[in-house]
């Protein structure tokens, strides 16, 4: 299924409202992961990027990319949505970096040219992973790393559509996850733990870590309501995969 046109339309339509609502949180400080803005300094997922060639896959308004560019990485920000890229262009700081319009499913780059490909609820949440993971692996140099944060299957399986919140009751089939309708044909993607392992290994990647970011009690979720409010302190809301290309 080709969700590229519908996802592009969705993000062009919501970009302005999305940045208005979320940029104050996700752009507040450098290197904040996920729905709970947990600092990378606590999770140690990315490490030192100085001098590295970095691709952010689905960079949105570039909150991550501009931080890594300021640290001395050679960053490229890729996104499907021109509205999101325009927001990244406006927010770019003194450390300039190129922005490229493209899809995680069909990366417009030569093989082996990046030391790090990463995203935080970006291209690996919004493109079919069986297409996007091999593309990410292709553009990585040997020894390069693919690091990405996505919603956990726990979070998706406990999401109550009618109530609009995550609960303590299983609402969706775990084995039926995969493609999640986001309206008007737009789609996000979710795999089971086993399928993530299969897709990563099939792309020739080695799994180094699976970090389960755990916010402290009382840490607000900037995106979704949960019941109880400290849901993610008790169950894993996100999966932060750390892999490399041998
Ligand atoms: C939730 S944002 C992630 C950016 C940033 N980390 C954030 O949290 O705002 C999702 C981004 O993925 C982009 N996107 C959606 N589908 C994509 C695709 N197939 N390839 C690349 N980017 C895509 C959207 O345009 C959007 O900017």
TrEMBL record:
InterPro entries: Methyltransf_11 (IPR013216), SAM-dependent_MTases_sf (IPR029063). It holds the Pfam family Methyltransf_11. The keyword Acetylation does not apply. One of its GO terms (molecular function) is methyltransferase activity. Gene3D superfamilies: Vaccinia Virus protein VP39 (3.40.50.150). Residues 55-148 form the Methyltransferase type domain. It comes from the Bacteria. PANTHER family: METHYLTRANSFERASE. This is SAM-dependent methyltransferase. It comes from Streptomyces cirratus.
